Amino acid sequence: MSAPAARTGLFPIGPTSPRSFSIDSAERSSTAKALEEVRGANYEVAHLIGGREVRTGRTEAIVTPHQHARTLGQFHHAGPTETGAAIEAATTASGWWSRLSWEERAAPFLRAADMLEYGPWRDRLNAATMLELSKTTYQADIDAACETVDFIRINVKNMLAMYDVQPGSLPGMWNQAEYRPLEGFVFAVSPFNFTCMNNLAFGPAVLGNTVVWKPAESASLVAHLSMQLLCEAGLPDGVINVVYGNGADIGPTVLEHRDLAAVHFTGSTATFQSIWRTVGNNIANYRNYPRVVGETGGKDFIVAHPSADLDALAVACIRGAYEYQGQKCSAPSRLYAPRSMWPALKDRLVALTETIVVGDPTEPSTYVGAVINARQHAKHVEALARARAEGIVVVGGNTDDSVGWFVDPTILEVSDPLSPFMTEELFAPVLTVYVYEDADWETTLHLVDSSTAYGLTGGVFVNDQRAERQADEILRYTAGNYYVNDKPTGSVVGQQPFGGARASGTNDKAGTVWNMIRFASPRSIKRNHLPVTDYRYPHLDS
């Protein structure tokens, strides 16, 4: 490991500023051109294994959620053969990638970050994110560009900070900690909802690990373009190997392999628990105990005290619950409102909701696009039909799949705080409200804490110090990302490290040294400059 030279020239970092996309701005024009480029490219997304494109002929269309008749191309499905080849490529590359200096490993990543922030890749990856994931221009930019850049740069910063943690030495010896990459390969499994979750593969790789990466099927194109960017920036073949397709076709080959060193996962709680169960069942067969790192679901909350600022609370609910169709892991989907505030808050939420434009996210006026696919849409159709039957719809509650998979921004009001709408994850632009009696603030806080299995994000709106201290204490383990007088979405890399516990994951905080250490295997080294030449201790002398 070479000395971390010239690090001050690289840092401090970010956060990368999002563009404004104002009328007649250069970025609005360049984004429009990039959208046309991506719409007309007809991509064929092949697996990337050891630097080679591998096609299987088992293909699936890349669909635009807000206009599902339009396709952007197709991606190939992998099976055990392709997955096994990806593992072999990763383990082969590990032999030399893991022994390069940190400067050599970091160089292609830092180059990719600069290319993404300042070059045409920003418009291209943003456009693909808008079309494949149905994100608005702003939501795409803060994800695909800003957070991807910030993760790349902070990974290098955190790697160097980790290397700086060294043991002490006494005269006559030199003690060192060597932060080796893991022995084996890392399996990265990324979700559909954030392009920047390419970090699940990129982070371990910069440390010297090699990776088999399985993106969500509904995010195949943005993963493909992320890798094109990285390869153009100089990442050597075999360091990150990408296989597309169903988890059931890829997972068993990876999870049962002797050289599995770690799993880096973001996705559903059920899938993560299945992965953990499989690893547990195979624990005696691995060369090393695999590290299992994951962020999963959430039933995120906002709880308002009677002292809360009504306008700030209403805006936080609208932004938090509706941005990106409620498909952020951090999106609040349950609101606890005091009875004294509810009539005015209800009117404000309804009025704001009715101004929300739902439609094609490439149009500047659109605030809510489409949900990701037909399967998710069908789940929301069923849930909202149940809500209408129960008479709990305050505003919204409708769906439409004639052109795209649209779900109207919706507010529900329930009388049962343990209603499924208050306890089960939906992943849609739906906010369910439970109205509590003002005198029951402390009781309500305990209800917030105990109602779900999750512990991801939450926000408290309060302008009373005693009530704020109560919330801070009672909700200490209710959320890994906890916000006071702010919406519980929009964590910024390097400022609010993201992750939760309970059923929401292992809380290893993406973008931190705590996350990076999970993909390193420290070795303690003692170099003795004054070797002992007599086995006897002084007390043995007579």
Q: Which structural traits does this protein have?
A:
7-stranded mixed β-sheet; alpha/beta; globular; 542 residues; single chain
Task: State Rg.
Answer: 25 Å
* Number of E strands: 23
Strand order of the largest sheet: 14-17-18-13-12-20-21
Mean pLDDT: 96
Stretches with pLDDT under 50, minimum 5 residues: none
- The separation of the N and C termini measures 48 Å
What's the tally of helices? 16
Secondary-structure content class:
alpha/beta
Question: In which range does the helix fraction lie?
Answer: 25-40%
Strand content bin: 15-25%
Overall body shape: globular
Largest sheet: 7 strands, mixed
Architecture overview:
By secondary structure, the protein is of the alpha/beta class. The chain has helices at residues 26-40, 80-97, 102-118, 121-133, 137-163, 199-206, 220-232, 247-255, 269-281, 310-322, 342-353, 374-390, 420-423, 441-450, 465-474, 513-517, and strands at 43-45, 47-49, 52-54, 59-63, 71-76, 173-181, 185-190, 210-215, 240-242, 260-266, 291-295, 300-304, 332-338, 393-395, 399-400, 406-407, 410-414, 430-436, 454-455, 457-461, 481-484, 501-502, 520-528. The strands form 7 sheets. The chain has a 7-stranded mixed beta sheet with strand order 14-17-18-13-12-20-21, sandwiched between helices. Strands 9-8-7-10-11 form a 5-stranded parallel beta sheet, sandwiched between helices. Strand 2 (47-49) and strand 3 (52-54) form a beta hairpin. Helix 3 runs antiparallel to helix 5 (137-163), helix 3 (102-118) crosses helix 7 and helix 5 (137-163) packs parallel to helix 6. The protein is globular and about 90 Å long. The protein starts with 25 loop residues before the first helix and ends in a 14-residue tail after the last strand.
